[in-house]
Amino acid sequence: MDSAAKDEIQPILLPGSSCPGPEWPEQERAEQLARGAALKWASGIFYQPEQLARLGQYRSREVQRTYSLEARIKSVVQSYLEGVQTGVWQLARALEAVQGTHEDLSQAHDLLQDLAQASKTLEPLRERVAQHKQLQALTQLLPRLQAVPAAVAHTQALIDAQQFLEAYVSLRDLEQLQEETWTPLGGLELPVFQGLSLLAEALGQAIEAAAGAAGQLAREDPALLVAAVRVAEVEAERTMPLGQAPRDWRQRCLRALQAGLERVHFATPVLPEPGALAEWLEALQVTLPAEMATAEALVAPCCPPHYNVVQLWAHTLHSGLRRSVQQLLEGPELGAADTFALLHWALHVYMGKEMMGSLELGPEADLFQLEPLLTLENIEQLEAAFVGQVQASVAQWLHKALDGEVAEWSREQEPNTDPSGFYHSPMPAIVLQILAENIRVTSLVSESLQRRVHGMALSELGAFLRSFSDALIRFSRDHLRGEALVPHYVSYLLAAFNHQSALSSSVSVLQPDGVASAVLAPIETALDELQRRICRLVLEALQEELQPLFSALPSRRWLLGSELLDGVCERTSRFCRDFWRVRKPAVQLLLAEAERTVVLQYLRALMQGRLVCRGADERTQAAERLQHDAAQLKELFLALGLEESAHCAPVLLALKGLLNLHDPTLLGLEVAGLRQQFPDVSEDHVSALLDLRGDVSREQRQAALSSLLAGPPPSPTTGHRALFSLVPTRTPSLTSCLPSGPCS
């Protein structure tokens, strides 16, 4: 580069400056900072006057430093300008090279356009060459192509004759010929090959049909089944040409095996009519194991191992059966018999040793992977429906049994008796048998169903007992009102006592094994209530019998003889003559309550104030009469069979002491002793007894009553039963003796 060029590219500097001012703002800022630093330094150096003498030295030193810095700056700028000059020169050379390359590319582009124009003139020649090659290939393949229609017809005939292996070989030859003509003809599809796809589909359908009848073919023509499976397997292993979709004959074969099984066993409606479910299940119980045996012994040897024929058969049959059962459950509600049959069959028979749980089925059946035939929701639905239907049926049967029993009560003859002479009716046995049989049968299905039916049975038994009790009340009401007089009213009440005893003694048969006995507590309570109701009705009848006799007691006639009590004992004995037909321990309860009723009637008569003794002789007679009557009543009920410990007639002996006391001032002691024996005695009762004496002054009465209140509290008596609290002193009532106690 000459010196003139170097001068042109060198920057022009202003006089007195080392770099352009406005173009270098950083330089201006640096100068300002330098000046500020210099002033600060100078002010610090020359702050003291004695240092001004050295000003000349500082000035010369700074001048030298300034010259040195300017020289260095000039050197850096000069080096920078030389580098820029070199870069500009290199850019100029590169521009010249790019321009040369551009000219060469333009020439090459012109040459390529000339070649393209020349190649267009060769297109007709190229087409003629391609046609010549196709004609040459067709000429070579023409003899084989002429035989294609005959080969297609022959292959179709082989398919119709179910000669699957020969048909498949022929089909593969035709497809091979089609592939050989494909490339030479440039992908041209010849009309002669248009029927190959239909021919292949026909062979696939024939193989599928053979697989669908695998069970029958395995027994009648296993070679045909083997041929169909072999064709499907060979086709599955074949590599398909590019662009041709694979034929899934293996999958079609497996699907046909499943569809054939389902068609044979589950194609017809599950329930052609109500009640046919049990027969259908019994038929499946025979056909499904036979089908599994056929699969294991005949079909499996005809198929490759990876077909898992036994597992396929088990899962297919199970899926079809499960689907059919679900369709059945979605239809009309099943009857109780069908519901029970389905539950028992699905939960016990189906997976039992006679069917899918057979020991002859090996592990290849893979039964553990099967879904339950009935889901938990299905079981819940079926159990609820079954319990509801059985409950309606049981309620109807129990209602009929009760109606039959009630109809017996109006007969002209006495109730039937068993060989031992006790009143007997088959009703309790029928009721318990109906309930127990339903509970027992459901144990064959599941514990949950048994618990449901057990709860239903107890509920229905409780409802039956309430209905029985209501029927007894209506029976008694109609009889007492005279609307329907029953010749043997008491006898049928006693028979009902035996019915209650039979139910109470046998109700434990309704308790399944493993169920806590506490579940029977409500039934036992209802039976106890029924017993009290029957006892109350019997005692009301007894009270009705004795009421006219006790209306004349106490009286002068009563004091003079035992005629009145003889009549009471005679009528009581006649009333209780059939008590022996009641089974133990109920007979003891009846006798005890009858004796208690007589005593309460006796006490009630005493408390009415119909007699006042006129002197000591009459008081002595009254005391002796009480003693005699107590002994006579005791003798009566002992003769009837009442245990002595249950007697309550001794209360009359306690009253005897109160009447026989000669010194009225000692009445307080006697009253206190009476209260100790009978804590429920009241002031009214004591006042009535004192009125009967006829010799007690007002002060003595007050002292006696005060001793009743001020005396020591009565000692607690175990098993004490109320007497005086049931006896009114005035305004007698027919039911006053029956508000509490075992029969209340």
Write up this protein:
- This protein is an all-alpha fold and 744 residues long.
- It contains 26 helices and no strands.
- The longest helix is centred in the first third of the chain and has 66 residues, at 55-120.
- The N and C termini lie far apart (144 Å).
- 29% of the residues are buried.
- Mean pLDDT is 81; it is low at 1-22 and 731-740.
Mean pLDDT: 81
Helix content: 55-70%
Q: Tally of extended strands? A: 0
Radius of gyration: 62 Å
Function: As part of the exocyst, may play a role in regulated exocytosis of insulin granules.
GO cellular component, one term: exocyst
Subunit structure: Interacts with EXOC2, EXOC4 and EXOC5; may be part of the exocyst.
Family: Belongs to the SEC6 family.
Annotate the secondary structure layout.
Layout: H1 3-9, H2 25-45, H3 55-120, H4 123-146, H5 148-160, H6 164-182, H7 196-212, H8 214-220, H9 222-237, H10 249-266, H11 277-299, H12 309-330, H13 336-349, H14 376-408, H15 427-442, H16 447-480, H17 489-506, H18 521-550, H19 556-560, H20 563-575, H21 586-606, H22 616-640, H23 651-660, H24 667-677, H25 683-693, H26 698-710
Helix pairs in contact: 5-6, 5-7, 6-7, 7-9, 7-10, 8-9, 8-11, 10-12, 11-12, 11-13, 13-14, 14-15, 14-16, 15-16, 15-17, 16-18, 17-18, 18-20, 18-21, 22-23, 23-24, 24-26, 25-26
